[in-house]
Amino acid sequence: MDEVIRKFDSIDGAEIDLKEWMHIISVESLGAMVLSWSPGMIKAGTDRATSYQSYLGWRRKSVFGLFPLIVKLEVNYKWVGRLFGIVWGVTYQTPKGFKPFFPREDLLTDLINLHKDKPEFTESYLRKMAITNFGAGHETLASTLIAIMAMLGTHPEVQATTTHEIRCQNAAKSRKPGSNISYADALELVYTRAVIREAMRLYPVISMSLPRVVPLHGSGLQLYGLRIPPGATVGCNPVSLHRNEDICGPDPDKFDPRRWLAGSDTPDNIRALERYSLSWGGGSRTCPGRHVAEMIVLKCVVRLLDRFEVRAAVPPPEDQGPTYFLAMLTGVRASFVPLEECKMKQR
User: Fold this and answer.
1) What is the DSSP string of 75-137?
2) Would 131 be classed as within a structural domain?
3) What is the CATH number of the domain that holds 56?
4) Annotated binding-site positions
5) CA–CA distance, 175 with 185 (Å, rounded to integer)
6) What is the 3-state composition of the chain as percent helix, strand, coil, each rounded to the nearest 5?
7) 268 domain residue, yes or no
């Protein structure tokens, strides 16, 4: 984040593509945590259109999902997947005798050591966990950061309250504005966390129904007087669920972080919001990278708001953007304007 802040300082409030820069932050953060690696996107000031290409990858998954035979071929015949890798140039062979330049202390190293210590954590699990945390995480993380920054940039009163909370904690803990913050300290920022959760409620990463199959054994599913037969595919759309008045209260389309703040008359409401949230999936299908993502998101939001005022254009209507399983706000322009206090310190 230090590099990101220096970069934003250097452009001095110039307008940027919010999607591209939140994707850069996501890739660089995950690259450092999972692989001890940086693709150099911050220095270059571009993600080299990888966010667009990744989004097209979700289109491929969405289309292939309509043709189960192709999916089964890819699972049962490894050459099908390898063929795609060769055609699109995404395979890489590690040279013999390769050694890293420095000792690695990252998530992948922890997973490898876990595999060595506990063989029951198989190599297959290791690969899937690593791919999920980095391969799937960078787009979903970027989508979350875009929604948060877009909401803050278009709701100045919410942004002012969030910045005030961060600055008050700086003063209480004798921490200089713009300096790094521990995750433990960030977790104490109740309003800031409410802002993040409210943005994720309105703009969940997944915007289509998550399919589940009614168990084949048994009489089927009884739901509100309706019988759904065994083998039927059912699902719940996160956007519809998150904007249900019975769950989130009045004005479900309004961005209002106060929904998540505890009060004498709100504990039941907050429990309902938490119970019926699909921001991270649910049950046994909860996102495996949730805790890593929550830490990155919270620390990024705190560092950016401690240093900059975010100004953003109103996001385009939700039905005008491309949606391929993954939903992401696109076309949002934003500026990160250094706060006057930070400007004075630079002089």
Assistant:
1) HH-HHHHHHHHHHTT----PPTT---SS---SHHHHHHHHHHH-TTS-HHHHHHHHIIIIIIH
2) yes
3) 1.10.630.10
4) 287
5) 11
6) 55, 10, 35
7) no
> What domain range is 283 assigned to?
2-210+278-346
Binding residues for heme: 287
Per-residue pLDDT of the chain (347 residues; tens, 9 = 90+): 999 999 999 998 999 999 999 999 999 998 888 888 888 999 999 999 888 887 777 777 776 666 667 667 766 767 766 676 666 555 556 566 656 555 667 888 888 899 999 989 998 888 888 777 776 678 889 999 999 999 999 999 999 999 999 999 999 999 887 788 999 999 999 999 999 999 999 999 887 788 889 999 888 998 888 999 999 999 888 989 999 999 988 899 999 999 999 774 556 788 889 999 999 888 777 887 888 899 999 999 999 999 999 999 887 776 666 677 777 888 899 999 998 755 555 55
What are residue 308's DSSP bridge partners? 338
pTM: 0.84
Q: What's the CA gap between 207 and 251, in Å, rounded? A: 20
Whether the CB-CB separation of 84 and 73 falls below 8 Å is answered with no
Indicate whether 241 belongs to any domain.
no
Q: Which of helix, strand or coil describes residue 325?
A: coil
In sequence order, the 6+-apart residues with CB closer than 8 A to the CB of 207 are 237, 238, 239, 323, 325, 326, 327
Scan for tokens 């210590």, then name that residue.
Answer: 117
Q: Which of 318, 330, 314, 317 is nearest to 20 (CA)?
A: 330
For residue 216, what are its two tokens?
A: 């084949």
Which is nearest to 106 in space by CA: 173, 36, 170? 36
Amino acid, single-letter form, for residue 293? A
Dist CA 200 CA 213 (whole Å): 26
Q: Give the single-character DSSP code of 59.
A: H
Residue 230 lies in a domain: no
How many structural domains comprise the chain?
Answer: 1
Q: Whole-angstrom Cα distance, residue 110 to residue 98? A: 19
Which residue has tokens 């800031």?
192
